Amino acid sequence: MAVTPAMSAMPATPSYAAAMPFVPLSMVQLREMARINRVDCTNMYMAAGNGHFGSSFSCVEILTALYFSVMRVDPANPDWADRDRHIFSKGHAAPTLYSSLIRRGFMPAEWMHEFETEVGVKLMTHPSRRYQPGVDVSTGALGHGLSIGVGMALAGKMDRKDYRVFVLLGDGEINEGSVWEAAMSAAKYKLDNLVAIVDRNGLCVDGRAEDVMPMGPLKQRWEAFGWETFEVDGHDIPALLPLLDVLRNQGNAKPRMIIANTIKGKGVSFMEDVRGWHADVITPAQYACVVDELKEPLQ
């Protein structure tokens, strides 16, 4: 990747060994980690020459809360049998996940600079369990993550494990019929160890999500399928934390759905709620603007 003057001004990424230590981080640290995540995503997309900015930025606070406060994971032992699981069903926003895993210590920071630069690099367009430690499921084809999550949660119940399964879905992908088959199955099997989150940014590549396929009152729809359902500002970390961090043996026999209302492109003024930034090429001038908007560390 060619390093521009603007890129050289960005904060350095940590070495693998120096990745930020375990959580829970303070609220100020969590917000700062979310800012760093957006910086990391921007650098990865600059290296690749294009990327899914909108979808990546809308889910930053959700992943920050999961990996730096909520999930029980061990970067030194990514396949630990008792770890909490996370399925990043909206796989096209992979750099948000990569940044979280690198900053959490699962992967070396050097990989970030190679994102999509050539065939054979470790970080690709979509997450891969085969090549990336900390990735529980390879994703990319939309609409399958919740079904896999149901299987993992059911296995946990059958094995009497207390791990939790988190599934992050895009609002566009819940148009898929397989999502609703999984929703019915989760209720049938009383999977109260399953937490799904819909990143409801309201925009798809083809237009407004409600125009592409109206979903009506989403909270009531999931409740009708037998889920315990909540609605929250998906960028409000203090509000997200208590909803994500459910008891390991909740005992109410209901899977949990969190409808997180978000803004596509959140954090960068000229990208927010703009459909064109679902996936686009970033120019050096635009990159410099993003750098300028994200440059100030939080105090």
Kindly describe this structure:
- With 299 residues, the chain is an alpha/beta fold.
- The protein contains 11 helices and 9 strands.
- The strands form 3 sheets. Strands 2-3-4-8-7 form a 5-stranded parallel sheet, sandwiched between helices. A two-stranded antiparallel ribbon has the order 1-9. Strands 5-6 form a two-stranded antiparallel ribbon.
- Strand 5 (203-204) and strand 6 (207-208) form a beta hairpin.
- The longest helix is centred in the N-terminal third of the chain and has 22 residues, at 27-48.
- The chain is globular.
- It starts with a helix and ends in a 6-residue tail after the last helix.
- Mean pLDDT is 89; it is low at 1-11 and 13-19.
Key phrases:
single chain; 299 residues; alpha/beta; 5-stranded parallel sheet; two-stranded antiparallel ribbon; 11 helices; 9 strands; 36% helix; disordered N terminus
Briefly, what is this?
By secondary structure, this protein is of the alpha/beta class. It has helices at residues 5-8, 27-48, 53-58, 60-70, 94-104, 145-158, 177-188, 209-212, 218-224, 237-244, 284-293; strands spanning 50-51, 85-88, 165-170, 194-200, 203-204, 207-208, 228-233, 256-261, 280-281.
Largest sheet, spatial ordering of strands: 2-3-4-8-7
- Overall pLDDT metric: 89
Determine the fraction of residues in helical runs and give it as a percent range: 25-40%
Structural class: alpha/beta
Strand segment tally: 9
Largest sheet: 5 strands, parallel
Radius of gyration: 18 Å
* Number of continuous helical runs: 11
Give the ordered list of helices and strands: HHEHHEHHEHEEEHHEHEEH
> How does the overall form come out from the CA principal axes?
globular
Uncertain residue ranges: 1-11, 13-19
Task: Give the oligomeric state of the chains in this entry, treating copies of one chain as homo and distinct chains as hetero.
Answer: single chain
- Report the portion of residues in β strands: 5-15%
Terminus-to-terminus distance: 31 Å
